[in-house]
Amino acid sequence: MIKEFKEFIMRGNVLDMAVGVILGAALKAIVDSLTKNLINPIIALFIGQVDLSGITLTIPGTKAVFGIGNFLNDIINFLIIAFVVFLIVKGFNKLRDMGSSTEEEPEALVQSQEELYLKEIRDLLAEKNK
């Protein structure tokens, strides 16, 4: 059972996922800091409030309070993370495409070598049938 667990953990997909989760958590911390320390002050220039989490909407006559500022912070964080993930995936796809184009060349050489052998066999059979 321990051996099976070790094989499961050592498979590439599980390790890739673990690395992705760890990097994702680190990226979230960086994006949170970016939003809090750089983007919110820029937004504060226009709305006069540095901390967006303080922006709320209260329905008159009730105690219902909507935390619009927190929601805006989460939207900003999501957009930044989505953009960074997009750039990473785009970069990996480009690298994969570059790698696949170099791998196709040996196949083309093998195929042309096969064609040469087939032509040689065809010529030998043609001479034999004469």
TrEMBL record:
Localization in the cell: Cell membrane
Keyword Thylakoid: no
Gene3D superfamilies to which the protein is assigned, alphabetical: Large-conductance mechanosensitive channel, MscL, domain 1 (1.10.1200.120)
KW Transmembrane helix (keyword) present: yes
Keywords assigned by UniProt, alphabetized: Cell membrane, Ion channel, Ion transport, Membrane, Transmembrane, Transmembrane helix, Transport
Transmembrane segments: 38-59, 71-89
UniProt topology in membrane: Multi-pass membrane protein
GO molecular function: mechanosensitive monoatomic ion channel activity
Classification via SUPFAM superfamilies: Gated mechanosensitive channel
Superkingdom of this protein's organism: Bacteria
GO annotations of cellular component type: plasma membrane
Chief place of localization: membrane
Parts forming coiled coils: none
InterPro entries with a match to the protein in the record: Mechanosensitive_channel_CS, MS_channel, MSC/AndL, MscL_channel
Assembly mode: Homopentamer.
Function: Channel that opens in response to stretch forces in the membrane lipid bilayer. May participate in the regulation of osmotic pressure changes within the cell.
Family to which this protein belongs: Belongs to the MscL family.
Protein name (Swiss-Prot/TrEMBL): Large-conductance mechanosensitive channel
Originating gene: mscL
